[in-house]
Write a structure and sequence with these properties.
The structure is a single chain. With 253 residues, this protein is mostly helical. It has one domain (2-252). Helix content is 77%, strand content 0%. It is built from 11 helices and no strands. It is elongated.
């Protein structure tokens, strides 16, 4: 059964990748907005923000990476909604394939597409002056956190892709996710925020994830931040995947 699921997921994933490659504007769009945000904050607003001895582009990059993922997973919701409402799923259900492979194919495609966009954003940051002396282990840890975060948000995107009544509704869920890093430590230190905003910023998932990535890239001790980031990512991933699979089974019943 596992071999059957893997084979079917691979076939459907290849189909979705072909669609992405035929319309590379989705990858470009996903990367352009975060790069534009990075340009604006680094070269226009960054001079007014005190981040100590840390160059602002180095301080900013982790938050921009999370915005990139939040922007990218909206296309997962869109592609899933379109598949559900153009009869493709019904056609697949009439074939001898593992039903859950359809969801896994969308999740895997989202992961690959977002990793490409993340690489483009890191390259842009390097051109803007970003530098890190982090070793291979730290970079692999950053990659691991970003993969977990992408999977968590992708499964979250599957839910509106399955349940939304319109394409706009399927995509709109990502707007709060894109906004969330702006109320965190991603752009300014939380110590500069008013009391209630500071409390929210310090206790929401983006701050823990941003601080963990920032510490790894700066080669600072990050054991507490990493554990908090992992708990948030895994918690969201498990809850979202469980709800999405349940919603899919009810729709397919």
């Amino acid at each position: 059964m596992n071999h059957h699921l893997l084979r079917d997921t691979g076939v459907l994933h290849a189909r979705l990748l072909r669609h992405v490659l035929r319309s590379p504007d989705t990858l470009v769009t996903t990367a352009i907005m975060p790069i534009a945000i990075m340009l604006m904050f680094v070269f226009v607003l960054g001079g007014a923000i005190d981040t100590g001895d840390v160059p602002y582009v180095d301080y900013l990059l982790p938050g921009v990476l999370l915005i990139t993922v939040a922007s990218g997973v909206s296309y997962t919701a869109m592609r899933l909604f379109q598949d559900l409402n153009t009869g493709i799923f019904e056609r697949f259900r009439s074939m001898p394939i593992a039903r859950s492979s359809m969801l896994w194919a969308h999740v895997l495609t989202s992961l690959i597409a977002n990793l490409v966009s993340l690489a483009a954003v890191v390259l842009a940051a390097l051109l803007m002056g970003f530098r890190s002396s982090a070793g291979i282990g730290a970079w692999l840890s950053v990659l691991g956190i970003l993969v977990l975060f992408t999977l968590a948000l992708t499964w979250l995107a599957v839910i509106p892709g399955l349940l939304a009544k319109s394409l706009d509704g399927a995509v709109a869920f990502s707007y709060p996710l894109i906004f969330l890093p702006f109320v965190s430590s991603a752009f300014v230190p939380t110590g500069t925020m008013p009391g209630p905003v500071r409390f929210f910023a310090e206790h929401q998932p983006v701050t823990a994830i941003v601080d963990a990535i920032r510490g790894l890239l700066a080669q600072r001790p990050v054991s507490g931040d990493i554990w908090a980031a992992l708990v948030w990512c895994l918690g969201i991933l498990i809850a979202a995947a469980g709800f999405a699979i349940l919603a899919y089974r009810r729709r397919a019943a």
